[in-house]
Amino acid sequence: MTRKRSHKRKKRTSSFRKHRGPIRRRTPPPPSRDERVLRERIQKFTYQDRFKDDFERAIRLYFGEGVLQDNVLTLDEEKIPGFQEWYIYDYIVSEGERIIDLFAREVGPRLPAAQRQMLDDWRRTNRYRLFEVQKVEPGIGVTVQDLLSGEVFEVNDVSASYALVKWQVFLARPLLTEGRLHFTGSMIPRPPMDKPALLDFARELWEEYQKEHPQASLDNFYRDHSLDLHRRLIEIATAPLVVYTPEGHLVCASTARYAVKDPGAVEERLDQAEEFVYVGPADEDETALAYVWLLRGRSRVPEVPVEGKGLIMRTDWMAESGEPTYRSLGDVRLWQERLELSCLSRERLAAGKMLLRRVLGRLIRHLGDEYRDLDTMLESVESSPPRRKRGGLPQVEEALVQRILADQRAEWLDTPVPMLGEKSPREASRDPAMREQLEELLKAVEYMEEQKRRAGEPYMDVADLRRELGLPLR
Q1: Is position 113 within any domain?
Q2: Closest by alpha carbon to 157, among 131, 192, 191?
């Protein structure tokens, strides 16, 4: 088997933008003396023996029956702040009131004026609201919108400005403290793709609440149903991740292994086949030659409609010279005595094995297949040591960058999308009735591209898509 010394390394890519590097982080301001003292007084009032039975009932209601065993509380510390805020501000104890209201009536009159004002502000603003992130200003704060009321809040929360991403949805408690609105307790941000499920649940719950309590306000609803909203969010956050290939098949790490009779002849035939592209020594093992299997020539993978909701995992391949883009279907690794074909679905592997038989014939002998589901794949990635980084590729010229971006924008703009009723984004932009669905789709795209940008990976600027569609920038 020859050792190829020169080759044109090709790249899987979505787009290219320069990442500016890490931002120097600011820290939140420390609490004032009045805030510290007031919190201590509320804590002391809350955890007196008077409410011992209420506390145990609340713990079981919030976390489940199994969390208290032999009077020992077993749970993650990171979940305690969220429970405390709910227990103090929303849970109704056996005396028929909430602890914060009992505290305000019994202790409030004796507080200094500054702490009384702070307590009034906390009782008025501490609600477990459903928000969508509208704007993020790192080191300053975030702009969020209440998805039930439509209200927009400027939240001066430095920590949230680094943790949240534009268009995420989440449940959180805004708190007005000495004129500054910030978040308290804990939050579980979710991607915009989870917005429909969470918002539909909240709206249905709110409508039922209004029927039962015609005079009640949204503030009342948030207090009375904060635990229901929290539970629904946890259900959504812990639901199994479903990922499909572009052909509509469930993602499954699939590998076929072969014995090789004549590695030189195998290498020659792979080089001659247009379906396989040599990309150099394998990153994970430089003793192996690496090829990418592309969707062109004789490559065929059956396609089926995607059933249910899920993510589509697509990988494209483009040469640095600006050749056409092709879908990547798998990877081939060739050693002196063995060969492996790796794909992301059972269907791709079956098609790839048929193609290898046509291309290589008796030069290889099938030894067996291995399959791993998505959860096992993720566990393997998390537990494996980081690979040694190879030398960087030459900088891509700006003209090529623009061509890649233009090609990908054009493909996305004219590709039918199930979320748009099988219309393309360009078609949907011409239909006023489709504007809301199109905006939600663009939010999901912008969120995913922002994640790439923050990770220092190539990303696409959604502003370019909005200009192509004739939509205002957001």
Answers
A1: yes
A2: 131
